[in-house]
């Protein structure tokens, strides 16, 4: 089956890669964007590709076999970006892409535990080398920890009630499978007939929260953004594609500081002073998919692309 990468044309237009550049794909997935990138930089260029999921990494390597001499593969979390890239003997980069979140195999293959529509274990690890799974989170975290995760990472108002019910239920029957958890969440939600939230399954937010906790996704992103900007040359571009508001907010706030950096004055001042921008935004508003793209690939519907360029040291 053809693999559909989200906002492919737009990423290409904004990143403007050229021959011989050293570029990074922080989220290789099945290699759709990577293929475009490696073709744009040509034989003299280098692509460093991160992927923490071994299955996806191996599949991408097969798909990109033709370009193997141009690619350095790194099977790791992108939160180790700087150490791993400098470890490969590279000190600065021309461009980097983050296409965050899940890939289609994560959703399609029940045994990964990411989808509540597919029967599977409550796993949700991108990288099975790590120990923490969604099952451990659900069955061992305290009620207040669960409530916090569901509120912060799931943006669910009923977080306390849900956490309380989860803790009551697990005393007798621990949570083991995706479909069981989804049915349980559905059963405890106070629906009224014809309520519009029927459209989105109430387990969606709980699954998002668990996934973010299991993979420590938001902290990884914050750490990686910092390292990425430190490695970008002047003129270097960074593109970040996010699929939910928590990620998009992190990206937006992170770059706001760099677009309007505060000057730490040695003289005590009552007023904040700001210096020249270090990064400029190339996308005044986030770029979103066209209706046509959403029709062809439903997964693209929540995508938001932001691109920035480094303008000075
Ligand atoms: C949306 S998919 C990328 C799709 C890819 N751009 C393509 O065109 O095929 C995101 C991928 O990033 C990986 N990923 C997510 N978070 C990661 C992290 N912190 N470090 C490394 N890889 C990560 C996931 O395993 C997944 O394969």
Structure, described:
The chain has helices at about 10-15, 30-40, 55-65, 80-85, 105-110, 135-140, 145-155, 160-170, 180-190, 205-215, 215-230, 245-260, 290-295; strands at about 20-25, 45-50, 70-75, 95-100, 230-240, 260-265, 275, 280, 305-310. By secondary structure, it is α/β, with parallel strands linked by helices. The mean pLDDT is about 95. Helix 3 links the parallel strand 2 (about 45-50) and strand 3. The longest helix is centred in the C-terminal third of the chain and has 15 residues, at about 215-230. It has 2 domains: about 10-105 and about 220-310, Rossmann fold; about 110-215, Putative methyltransferase TM0872, insert domain (DNA polymerase, domain 1, Orthogonal Bundle), CATH 1.10.150. The chain binds S-adenosylmethionine (SAM). S-adenosylmethionine binds near residues 51 and 99.
Oligomeric assembly: single chain
What gyration radius follows from the Cα positions, in whole Å?
A: 21 Å
The fold-level CATH name of the largest domain is Rossmann fold
Please mark out the parts with pLDDT under 50 across 5 or more consecutive residues, or reply none. Answer: none
Q: Which ions, cofactors or small ligands are bound in this entry?
A: S-adenosylmethionine
> For the record, what is the CATH homologous superfamily label of the largest domain?
Vaccinia Virus protein VP39
Structural class: alpha/beta
- Annotation field: number of helices: 13
> Helix and strand string, N-terminal first?
HEHEHEHEHHHHHHHEHEEEHE
The total strand number stands at 9
Question: How would you state the average pLDDT, rounded?
Answer: 93
For the largest beta-sheet, the strand count, sense and barrel status come to: 7 strands, mixed
- Strand order in the sheet with the most strands: 3-2-1-4-5-9-8
Shape: globular
Count of separate structural domains: 2
- Shape-level CATH architecture of the largest domain: 3-Layer(aba) Sandwich
Give the N-terminus to C-terminus distance in angstroms. 44 Å
